[in-house]
Amino acid sequence: MSVPLVIGIGNPDRGDDAAGPLVADAVTSLRPDIDVVRLSDPLALVDLLAGRHLVIVVDAALTGRPPGTVGVLDVSDSPLPGERRGSTTSSHGLSLGDAIELARALGRLPDRLLVVVVEGDAVELGQAPQPIVLASVTEATTQVLAMVDGGIGDR
Amino acid sequence: MTRARTLDVPVLARVEGEGAMHVRIRDGKVDDVRLRIYEPPRFFEGFLRGREAAEAPDITARICGICPVAYQTAACNAVEAARGVTVSDAIRAMRRLLYCGEWIESHALHIYLLHAPDFLGYPDALSMAADHRDLVQQGLRLKKTGNDVMELAGGRAIHPVNVKVGGFFRFPTPQEMARVRAILDQAADDAEATLRAVAALELPEAQMAYHFIALDPGTGEYPLEDGRVVLSGDGVREPDRFALELFDERIVELHVEHSNALHARLHGVGSYVVGPLARWALLGDRMTGRAAALAAELDVARPMLNPFASIVVRALEVVYAVEEAQRLIDEWPADPGPSDVDVPVGAGLGYGASEAPRGLLVHRYRLDDDGLIADARIVPPTSQNQAQIEDDLRTFVQDHLDLDDAELTRQCEVAIRNYDPCISCATHFLRLHVDRD
Predict the structure, then answer these.
(1) Which residue ranges form the domains of chain A, and what is each CATH number?
(2) Residue among B387, B385, B395, B383 at smallest CA distance from B418
(3) Residues contacting B200, CB < 8 A, separation 6+
(4) B302: three-class secondary structure by DSSP
(5) Are B129 and A102 inside 8 Å of each other by CB?
(6) Which long-range contacts (CB under 8 A, 24 or more apart) does B82-86 make?
(7) In the prediction, which pLDDT does B255 show?
(8) Among B34, B190, B245, B312, which is most exposed with the fewest C-beta within 10 angstroms?
(9) What is the CA radius of gyration of chain B?
(10) Which helix (H) or strand (E) holds A39?
(11) Residue among B364, B354, B369, B338 at smallest CA distance from B166
């Protein structure tokens, strides 16, 4: 069985957007047996998913829920909900939802693909994440490890 | 009665950065076209002041995640020129190899994910992928090969870390080069298939009278990583040539109220084009090998004056860049010598340029006695193309007033994407506004 892969998406120097890379850092230091990748461009995700059993993507989200809220979405069989197609805060390339759908259209999804979202509301360039978002990085990391160890990829 | 129409695109899609388009039509005449770049100014030239010259490549690489190599290379060229340093042939070859990776990566992204959906009748690459799976796989494979070449020479694909003023921190090992060389054969096939596919596309017809500007590398090669002479012409008559040091005299940058990017004008000419069409028009005879043979076989016009066919020239440049990367690796010397040359700290004024995927990029630095940057000027390709994009839109809209607003607006967006505009680089995403009654 393939090693689980955790992908932290976001810009580490853009406020709450650092949540994804910070969870990736935490998983790396706690669990060297898990593959970890940090991405700023979701398009690169398309090349990383195929042939994997379990992939967990961690990303900051701006959906209007309270900052620091952690949620888990299973996108193995259906698109990332609530994301308008073609919407992205990055000027380069695709949004996370678009990248996942491109991988799906190309038949490149892993057996199980989960997205852990950490709610934020401040993504100014050069700013540190808010304390409440930093605190939720620990919770998100705990959830990622629980999913890896709980055999959530086995279905 | 005055008949007025307004076409507005408030956020342009599938371009790099944030911009908008506004077109106003009165009495059957296009009377106002504005490509509005509202992405906030970046102030990079200000950041550079007071920094050490050696920091210029890494700071300016951050201007763009798609073409960091263009910025790094032009910055190195400028600082080295300011200090009167020339690099070895091996260092120059490694810069060219790194740059080939960026052309392959950037052009593949634009051809497949940003521009092809326009000509195959899809709203975006995602919808296109469902019907053209093999085509999109091919594009992603090419893009990845470009990234692999950049990682080989630059240490990583986005904002490479191996580049320094004077050369590289280290050259890749023969084993590392052999690994990338092996995947370039597949890329050569993919690049040729891409060119054949885009050459067969049904493209909109347009014929513009363009003035082109491109960099002559002075080596007899197709322009890429360096050059000290700028060529300027229509691609038919013998071009004018001027030294890169005269760039500030020949090119005037104007602030226009509707844009955070400066508009560049060539003295005595006005708007002009940089990028694939310009390189092909002025220096297309420097294409070699498979690229030259395919251009002849597919009868790619030179100069190419249909802006919608820029996708064909871009695909031709991918064929060239893959072949050039293969050659550079094959001819890499057993003993390349040191990976960098010493660039002593001190004062000077230096111009450096390179041919970014989107066109000529010029850096100028004035260094003080301590080697600190006293003054910097960076002229990116998209700000040079901005005035010409507006001219293209004016002509295109005037010739297609019979189209309804929705279709006219869509085709205007395609016309903007012909230039693969990197608005992030130019500012210093696109909204379209068409105003007519």
Answers:
(1) 5-149 (3.40.50.1450)
(2) B385
(3) none
(4) coil
(5) yes
(6) B82/B53, B82/B348, B82/B349, B82/B350, B82/B365, B82/B366, B82/B367, B83/B53, B83/B343, B83/B344, B83/B346, B83/B348, B83/B350, B83/B367, B84/B348, B85/B166, B85/B341, B85/B342, B85/B343, B85/B344, B86/B341
(7) 79
(8) B245
(9) 21
(10) strand A35-39
(11) B338
d(CA B157, CA B180): 13
Chain B residue closest to A107 (CA)?
B133
> Nearest 5°: CA angle at B34, between B408 and B38?
110
Q: Which two tokens stand for residue A67?
A: 């900052």
Question: Which residue out of B140, B147, B358 would a mutagenesis test of the A interface target, given it has the greatest number of A Cβ atoms within 10 Å?
Answer: B140
Domain residue ranges in chain B: 4-427
**Residue B227, burial from CB neighbour count under 10 angstroms (0-12, 13-18, 19+):** buried
Count the helices and strands in chain A (H runs, E runs).
Answer: 3, 5
List all residues 6 or more positions away from B224 whose beta carbon is below 8 Å from its beta carbon. Answer: B96, B99, B100, B103, B217, B324, B354, B355
Is the alpha carbon torsion for A62, B124, B294, A47 positive or negative? positive
Could you read off the pLDDT tens digit of each residue along chain B, which spans 437 residues? 456 777 777 666 666 666 778 888 898 898 888 887 755 556 788 889 999 999 999 988 887 777 889 999 999 999 999 999 999 999 999 999 999 999 999 999 999 988 898 899 888 888 899 899 999 999 999 999 999 999 999 987 777 889 999 999 999 999 999 999 999 999 999 999 999 999 999 999 889 999 999 999 999 999 999 999 999 999 999 999 999 999 999 998 887 777 777 788 899 899 999 999 999 999 999 999 999 999 999 999 999 999 999 999 999 999 999 999 999 999 999 999 999 999 999 999 999 999 999 999 999 999 999 999 999 998 889 889 988 999 999 999 999 999 988 888 888 888 888 988 776 554 433 344 556 65
Chain A residues with CB inside 8 Å of B124's CB?
85-86, 98
Global confidence as pTM: 0.86
The 10s digit of each residue's pLDDT in A77-131 is 988 876 544 444 444 457 788 889 999 999 999 999 999 999 988 877 778 888 9
Per-residue tokens: B349: 């004024």
Q: Across the beta sheet with B348-356, what order do the strands follow?
A: B348-356, B359-367, B373-379
A107 contacts in chain B (CB < 8 Å): 133
**Chain A: residue whose CA lies nearest to B123:** A86
Instruction: Classify A73 as helix, strand or coil.
Output: strand
Structure tokens, B198: 């885009």
Chain A residues whose beta carbon lies within 8 Å of the beta carbon of residue B430: none
CATH number of B4-427: 1.10.645.10
Residue A89 to residue B341: CA distance in whole angstroms: 41
Q: Are strands A112-119 and A54-61 parallel, antiparallel or unpaired?
A: parallel
Is the distance from CB of B418 to CB of B10 less than 8 angstroms? no
The two tokens of residue A148 are 């890896």
DSSP letter for B85, please: -
* Structure-token pair, residue A97: 């939802």
